[in-house]
Amino acid sequence: MAGMMEGKVAVVTGAGGGIGREIAIMMAGAGAKVIVADIGASLTGEGASASPAEQTKQMIEQKGGAAQICTESVASWRSAQKIVQAALDHYGRIDAVVNNAGILRDVIFHKMTEDDWLSVIAVHLNGSFFVSRAAAEHYRKQESGTFVHMSSTSGLIGNFGQANYSAAKLGITALSKSIALDMARYNVRSNCIAPFAWSRMTSSIPATTPEQQARVAKIQQMTPDKNAPMAVFLSSDAAKGVTGQVFGTRMNEMILFSSPRPIRIVHRAEGWTPETIAEHCIPAMQAAFMPLDRSGDVFSWDPV
C-alpha cells in the first residue's frame, strides 16, 4: 500500500538527530524522498560535520527509503536557497518543508549577551523564514506545498533562562500564520508543532535537585519519535484544509493550542486617564490576567 507521502519530496532541517531525524525517517517510510539538511553543529551552534546527516541518510536507506544530504546552514539567505535547491537538483521538485533546525544558548535574561540573542534568532526564526521563503517560489508555481515549523511551549507559555529561544519560537507561530494567510490562494499550507521530547535540545536542562531530576525523568520518557506522526500527517494530502494551526505532540497526547484573542474589554464613555485605568480598568480585568507560569506549570500531569 502506498504511503501517505508517496511521490513527494521533503526537506527536513536539523535532521541529523533527535526529532528531525525521526521525522525524516518516518517521511521516507511514508514514501517521500528526503533531503536531510543538517550543518552538524554543536548544541550551541559551533562547528560543522556531515556525519549526523550521513547517519540519518544511512538509516533511511537501510529501511529502503531515498535520501540525500545537505550541510548548508539555515541561518543565511543564500545557504537556505541551496537547501531547497538540493531537493530540486536531486529529485526535481519540492513538496514539504519541516523547519526543525535549532540551537540553544540558555542563560538568564540579565546575563544574556548580544551573541546569545542573535545566534538563536538567526537559526530558529531567520532560518524558518529563509528556508520557507526559498521554497515559496516553487510552491507558488506548482500551486501546492506544505510547511511544518517547530515552535515550543517555551514561547507559547514561557520558561526560565530562554528569552532568546522563547522569542524565536513564538515568532515562528506568527510567521506560520502569515504564510498560511498569504499563500492559501496557492493551496499552500503552514502549521506549527510544539514538540515534547528528550533530545539534544533538552539535554541541557539542569538536574541537580530532586525536583529537577524528577522533571527530567518525565521528559526522558518522551522519545523524539512521538513527534514524527503529526509532522508526516501535516505534510501529506490527508491534511488538506488544515492550516494556520499550532499543535502539541506530548507522548501519546495530541494538543491544539489557541491563539491570543480578546478575553475581557472595559469601556468608558468619557475616555481614560492613568488614574481611571488604575481605579476601574485594571480591577475589572485583573481576574482574567494570565499567570506568570511556565510550560511545566501548565503541563503538570505525567505524560502517558
UniProtKB/TrEMBL annotation:
Xref: InterPro entries = KR_dom (IPR057326), NAD(P)-bd_dom_sf (IPR036291), Peroxisomal_Beta-Oxidation (IPR051687), Sc_DH/Rdtase_CS (IPR020904), SDR_fam (IPR002347)
- What SUPFAM superfamilies does its record include? NAD(P)-binding Rossmann-fold domains (SSF51735)
Q: Which residues form the Ketoreductase domain?
A: 8-204
| Family listed | Belongs to the short-chain dehydrogenases/reductases (SDR) family.
Tell me what this protein is called: 3-hydroxyacyl-CoA dehydrogenase
